[in-house]
Description:
Elements: H1 13-25, H2 29-60, H3 66-92, H4 96-101, E1 109-111, H5 135-144, E2 158-160, H6 181-195, H7 198-202, E3 207-211, H8 223-229, E4 239-242, E5 256-259, H9 266-275, E6 284-289, E7 298-299, E8 302-303, H10 306-316, E9 322-325, H11 332-337, E10 339-345, H12 353-360, E11 364-368, H13 382-385, E12 387-388, H14 397-406, H15 409-416, H16 419-424, H17 436-445, H18 452-464
The chain binds 2-acetamido-2-deoxy-beta-D-glucopyranose (4 copies).
Amino acid sequence: MDQNHKKKPSKNKGYYVKMKLMHKHGIRPQQQEKNHFHKYYKWILWLSLSLYFFTSYLISNNNNHNHNNNIKHHQITSTIKSLSQSLSIKKTTSSPQTLQKTSLKNLKIFVYDLPPKYNKNWLKNPRCKTHLFASEVAIHRALLTSDVRTFDPYEADFFFVPVYVSCNFSTVNGFPAIGHARSLISSAVKLISTEYPFWNRSTGSDHVFVASHDFGSCFHTLEDVAMKDGVPEIMKNSIVLQTFGVTYDHPCQKVEHVVIPPFVSPESVRNTLENFPVNGRRDIWVFFRGKMEVHPKNVSGRFYSKKVRTVIWKKFNGDRRFYLRRHRFAGYQSEIARSVFCLCPLGWAPWSPRLVESVALGCVPVIIADSIRLPFSSAVNWPEISVTVAEKDVWRLGEILEKVAATNLSIIQRNLWDPRTRKALLFNSRVHEGDATWQVLHSLSEKVDRSYRSSRVSRQLEFDT
Ligand SMILES: *[C@@H]1O[C@H](CO)[C@@H](O)[C@H](O)[C@H]1NC(C)=O
Ligand SMILES: *[C@@H]1O[C@H](CO)[C@@H](O)[C@H](O)[C@H]1NC(C)=O
Ligand SMILES: *[C@@H]1O[C@H](CO)[C@@H](O)[C@H](O)[C@H]1NC(C)=O
Ligand SMILES: *[C@@H]1O[C@H](CO)[C@@H](O)[C@H](O)[C@H]1NC(C)=O
């Protein structure tokens, strides 16, 4: 373990205290903005009122046009009313993005410096930071250079435990083998809980892990085994950032968690968009490329994706409006960028990388996954940028999409093509306001009551007042 971070950095204590005082007494930029607006708002009201009194003075001094005066009087009063109404509306209804802007608070995160066998060593394989589960790498990397990172664990609200578990790719099929995940994580927890006091003092409740593969912190690729094994005892009290999310009760989300998108490389999206802009020509009407097994799988009474995919294939293969392909193709992003609708049926687990790529490339995602929970619903207004089709209605897909195309397709596309939507689902190597790592931070800032430090601070404040 890195010697530098073992002990409380007493040398720098003065600096931290200063910073804290500044946070306490200084005015934050957002507050300043608000104050400006407040001043401005008062000015307009004041001006309008003076104008009103001045004009009514003029009017009442002119007795010859009594009838007109009343009308003018009414007009002015209503102008003032609507003016102040529009001002107060402006004040209360801002878009989710602007609301969020003010709400990262003073979040502080301490990132454990673990020995390289827990993380960096895995990067020897370049796929580790680009594949579908690479958010475990991307979030760690972005946090290291982020403003919310603190080197003083005593002022941290949360503790990030950077263990990469998805990069042990099978030599047989290239899929991540996650059999070692539980032991790797528990060994990391053993290490931090003996070397530092922070795990024990909160029993891990302010510690954050990433579990970006199929069934999140259940760490198994088969759902029935994942369900049986459940979330490891050691993580049960912590916060897990996971792609897995369903609206019903499921053992693999019985932990405080944030649903995050799977990793899609922002560079690859940028490159594709250079050749195929979102508002460019879309000559494919409905697109899907992926596995379409013929035999549906019955797990715990729930028919998974395979059945939906089978229906799609059987019913629409041969329909000229549908562009369906069963085999891998490296250039599939350009196909998405050329399509109006992109089918996002449930994958192996109830989330889909296609969803992120469709949104990023401006193809309207058609979500066919009953009871899925989508990532960052506070930032991404999913019902406004996608079409949802119930699994049982999949055979009517053609009809349903025709109806959308004839009614509200352009509205959906306009919402979808807002660059803020795409941004929220992509993990950059540095945190950008509004991007996926930023959304994670925002979600954490709303869970600050789980933080040992923050609960102490608020108790202290209660005591003081
Ligand atoms: C990686 O996975 C293989 C099985 O595919 C396993 O034998 C090996 O021990 C794993 N490596 C580590 C470092 O856990
Ligand atoms: C935390 O608790 C564990 C188990 O009780 C113990 O082994 C460990 O030494 C404790 N850590 C510290 C820093 O006291
Ligand atoms: C699916 O599984 C459930 C319970 O595991 C069972 O009751 C049901 O009969 C199965 N359905 C089929 C078609 O095999
Ligand atoms: C588009 O129309 C469909 C019905 O055809 C409706 O279910 C959906 O909510 C509409 N979406 C938007 C964003 O207006």
